[in-house]
Amino acid sequence: MLGATNGSSTSVWMDTATVPVFPPLVGAQEAQVCVIGAGIAGLTAAYLLARQDRDVVVIDALGVGAGETGRSTAHFFPPDEWYHGIERRFGYAQAKLVAGSYAHALQMVESIVRREGIACDFEHLDGYLVVQHDDDQPTLERECDAAVRAGVQAELVSGVPGLEYGTGPAVRYPGQAQFHPLKYLDGLARAFIRRGGRIHGASHARRIQGDHRRQVVSLDQGQVRAQHVVVATHTPFNDRVVMHTKQVGYRSYVIGLRVPHGTLPHLLLWDLGDPYHYVRLASGIDGDEVLLVGGADHKTGQDGHPGHRYDELERWARERFPLARELAWRWSGEVMEPSDGLAFLGRNPMDDDNVYLITGDSGNGMTHCTIGAMLVTDLIMERPNPWSALYDPARKPVHGLGEFASAQANVAAHYGEWLGGGEVDSVQAIAPGEGAVLREGLRRVAVYRDPEGALHALSARCTHLGCAVHWNSAEESWDCPCHASRFDVEGNVLHGPAPAPLARIVLAPGDVPPPQDRRSSARGGMR
User: Could you count the other beta carbons within 10 Å of the beta carbon of residue 285?
Assistant: First the structure.
């Protein structure tokens, strides 16, 4: 089992792997490179740099794999925008570069697995893109043609083999891959330590300050002085505004259904529906296999009770996979969608040239994080990299301007919530295990009532740029609808870019129910 995580749900990976736990950083340390974040992006970068004899220290606010890597479905597949979308926005030459970077990322992961002997269920398999409506079939032809032009092996087929339901025509992408992400991180962390690396968990980076010669990373109980800093925290906490106008956070949902071993083919499946779906199998779980079905995305902080999304995924899955048995896992994760469809990997445009970002995964976290680690390693080693301009975080959002404008309008609308009332009139309306925002004078207060009936009150003002947070009942967290920061019920940061916890608030006496009311409320919740 994994220790601390950034949500209350548990993925199949968390239940079927252990990862090493490292002590917090206390005091001052020196390193050539400080990597912030111990997910696949940070640990891959740290490992590659250690292989270049760089002295590297990794810090993470929680621990190895406790962020989004352990919530991924962990497969390698074509760009989330698909090759026809990349070609339309960036042109043929750039689409070919994207395809090359994806292929190199997959080769890198496979080489690490083999070199370090990591038992992480890595396997190659075919991927299939299907449509839900006949009217969308011309899109498959465009995608297949664009993929082939980009140098990708792809072909149109009449259907997906081995499935009980007729998918209709599909684009087949041979040679894709999947693995167990936490088993991979376990092996990666141990390999990094063997090469002299240092890892510290429970070490929350609060600030980065310095110049082109040296940066100082400040933590709650210490600091790291380093020549280079890699910010691999899924979304950067060190940049207050610029990068957060270029990407939008989404919650994506996954269910795991047990299926008898050998009854379904090992393949990857994605559709072009709205909402869209993605499918894979996980093996070796108590003698069964687990059918993983994901999708039903929405913008972070913009669905307070998203449990219905799990139900929708289950209905979709059972209609197509009638052999599926009991529902064993439900979880969600965060996806950062860049405005133009390509990740942001490289030098942070707001700092000296020795601070680097790996962000904007666009649903391809395993691939983009590996590309980012390779690219950042080359920059630190002062080597040329063919993808540095393609993924440059300083690039302007010339492509995808419509999505960019829509995202900014959405953010502006949520700032307007400060002018309105609360979601409830008093704390008496909040059931045990639930949260809601109420207005108390000029302030908005985020209040959670725990299962025992006790109240936990926080300022609803996100510590990033002041947007009002919303309750997320699926993960029992307070989520910001503007820039995707997330906080637990005590106000602690679960996901940036927020740099600090939500402020705690003492409720006015009139808002707190008498003891007997609180007890009856708790009893009612337990029934």
Answer: 17
